Amino acid sequence: MSRHAFIGLVLTATLAALLLDAFGARADETCMSPYMPKITGQEDYVYVWTLGIEGVGDGSDKLVTIGANPADATHYGKVISSVSVGGRHEAHHAGFGDDRSHLWAGGLDDSLIWVFDVAADPAHPKVVRTIDSFVKDSEGVVGPHTFFALPGRMLITGLSNDKDHGGRTGLVEYNN
Q: For labelling, which of 9, 55, 144, 160 has a CA lying 20 to 30 Å from the CA of 40?
């Protein structure tokens, strides 16, 4: 192989690697909400949807608010508040609505869904809606799993079904 051919091959391989790497970096963003660009600047709080543990606190699942802004030394890294949902429902995933004013959270065990207002007082969210009809509304989907914001709506994936619990499931859509 001539020196020019070798240099051409190396340059082509380098260019191909750079292009593939650039496209690879974007590939991870395909599962992100189109509302991610609305997040600008430093978040002040992190909301943790957590499992209840028998003998710890009230033992119930809860939404815990933690200070996330390093500029606020009083609250940074500390638990600011928590909202108990009364019982152990196997807290799993949560997701913001399209305008980030509400956080939807689900329990896998009993298919309950809680909607928290995180806009009125972001440090102290409140439950504003409890959906106990997920299985009925969806005609048999159980285990609200992933919450994905759509314009004016929330798309929720289910874990399984109430017929054979064999994994066949569906997508369920609610209005905000």
A: 144
Bridge partners of 43?
none
Cβ pair 123, 83 in contact under 8 A: no
Query: How many CA atoms within 13 Å lie on the side-chain side of 59?
Result: 4
The pLDDT tens digits for 57-108 are 899 999 999 999 999 999 999 999 999 999 999 999 999 999 999 999 999 9
Closest CA to 81 of 131, 44, 36: 44
Reading the block at residue 143, the tokens are: 């285990």
Give the fold, CATH level 3, of 40-175. Methylamine Dehydrogenase; Chain H (2.130.10)
Q: Which of 120, 130, 148, 46 is nearest to 84 (CA)?
A: 130
In order of 39, 91, 113, 134, 164, the CA distances from 161 in angstroms are 35, 18, 16, 11, 7
Phi and psi based region of residue 128 (left: phi greater than 0; alpha: psi -120 to 50; beta: remaining): alpha
Using the predicted structure, report yes or no on whether residue 165 has a pLDDT greater than 70: yes
Tokens of 103: 């956080």
Domain ranges of the chain: 1-31, 40-175
* Tokens, residue 62: 């809860």
What are the tokens at 140?
């048999």
